[in-house]
Design a protein that fits this description.
Elements (H helix, E strand, L loop, with lengths): L21 H4 L6 E4 L5 H9 L3 E2 L8 E3 L4 E4 L8 H9 L3 E4 L3 H15 L10 H12 L3 E8 L2 E11 L2 E9 L4 H15 L5 E4 L3 H5 L3 E3 L1 H12 L14 E2 L8 H5 L7
Parallel strand pairs: 8-9
Antiparallel strand pairs: 1-3, 2-3, 4-9, 4-10, 5-6, 5-11, 6-7, 7-8
Length: 263
Amino acid sequence: MPLPNHHPLQRPLGCRYQFPDPMVADPDGEGLIALGGDLAADTLVCAYRQGIFPWFNEGEPIAWWSPDPRCIIYPSDFCASKTLKRRIKNAGWTFSLNLAFAEVIAACADTRTYAQASASATWISPAMIEAYTALHAEQVAYSVEIWDNDELIGGLYGLKLGQAFFGESMFHRVTDASKAAFFVLMQLCAHSQFAWVDCQLPNPHLLRLGASILPRVEFLDKLAQQLSLPSIDWSSICGQKLPLNQLLNEDFMTYYLPPSAQI
């Protein structure tokens, strides 16, 4: 199905800035590629397509990064523990996609604030929230939500371009709820034939979940390949609460994301 003309993957990109090649701008692999610019939707899409993302504190210039090495996770390598699987099976939770994007990104910002109790700023600033909410309106940014009845207890958000997903942040209000959201994302990406999910920077938690570390040059090569592939239309699964434990059934995703969902 062709994308509508207003979609950023269909229309010519209107980015006013030319991002430098990360390998040229940062030969020492420190990660910082550029300063300045804006957070317009087309600017962000241009950046992500080149393996670059914004990361800066409120009140600072916009900083654009492409770290070396890069952290990714292959859906096939995701390690769901027995404890998590039991939780998913028995908790009675539901999951959704794009049902509460604004609430998810706001909760992620709150989580960062609490984690930096002694700091004066969080990198998920109001400007960042506004920018990614605009990408959500353009069907580029997606959220995964975990619910206990009507209570939002965990979730994550990120960007989908081609057959690449760029994870941004996650939160939990109940133990294992963010892991459950990540489990949902892994199932979505595996069924959508996404080779990997970009996790940006490695940390012990991601590595325990099965993440890998790649040299930047290898990541950029893989990214170009994934961006050239047709994406999967997730609209059939968006905006509804579904039983989380049904994801333990291998045929569940096939019903919502048939092979004809390629766009």
